[in-house]
Amino acid sequence: MTRTVYVNGAYLPENEATVSIFDRGFLFADGVYEVTSVLDGKLIDFEGHAIRLARSLSELAMRSPIEKAHLLEVHRELVRANRIEEGLIYLQITRGAASDRDFAYPSEDTPPTIVLFTQNKPGLADSPVAKVGIKVISIADQRWGRRDIKTVQLLYPSMGKMMAKTAGCDDAWMVEDGAVTEGTSNNAYIVKGGKIITRHLSNDILHGITRAAVLRFAREAQMEVEERAFTVAEAQGADEAFFTSASAFVMPVVELDGQAIGSGTPGPVATRLREIYLDESRKVAI
Asked: What's the start-to-end Cα distance of the chain, in Å?
């Protein structure tokens, strides 16, 4: 089945969708993106993603080509047209296409480019990987300094995932000044003595929408949360570890740099948080 995608105001078959070769997203990675999960045919955390999108655009002095209400309509139409019960919707907005390549931003009347497409992911919520956990390696964090903006500058995270695959692992946690910042596409956590520890918000990490929801649910469940940096050694000596993202929800991490974390199996905190997140998110999905 050919997917229906959305490009600059039009719904099109994916094989008819095009973007200019002069688009600044292609030439300069001058763009932002969001990923929203779909469960039971409904959107998870749409409001949070829309708010973060607006912030990313503002931080880059980039205007939005779409109002939030219309953006919601587009998401819902793509879910309907592509018959998505469980899956993902990717949204990308760039500064658009000027008449030629130039480092300087184009004039303000240059229309931004907006693209949305779906990925059908049956079994997304009931992931078999979450039942066994994943293995990660640590790598140096060599990204730019504004990781709080969700830009399309994803080359180094892609390289990190490939380093992990080469090492026979699933993902990589990035390390800067001796402390874990985050995963290649997720926020990182450890659990020690029942306490959930995750890096505090700053320009160093993405302000994860799933992160915010999971920490809220954890506190509501009377779990203790400490927001601070932690080292690789702390993670290896933790009782358990996990990461969060819009596409993986809560994912247990059972090994770091070849050393088992805790029992080497998904721990009770991560397992329970995944259950809570899925249950509560489904209740308020739109």
From this structure: 25
Q: For residue 243, what are its two tokens?
A: 């990461």
Of 92, 87, 82, 9, give the one whose Cα is nearest residue 43.
87
150 included as an active-site residue: yes
Give per-residue pLDDT as tens, 93-121. 999 999 999 999 999 899 999 999 999 99
Q: Dump the DSSP string for 261-277.
A: -TTSS--HHHHHHHHHH
Q: How far apart are CA 253 and CA 274, in angstroms?
A: 13
Catalytic residue among 42, 121, 131, 150: 150
DSSP code string of 30-41: -EEEEEEEEETT
What pTM value is reported for the model? 0.94
- On whether the CB atoms of residues 229 and 200 are closer than 8 A, the answer is yes
CA 174 to chain centre: 15
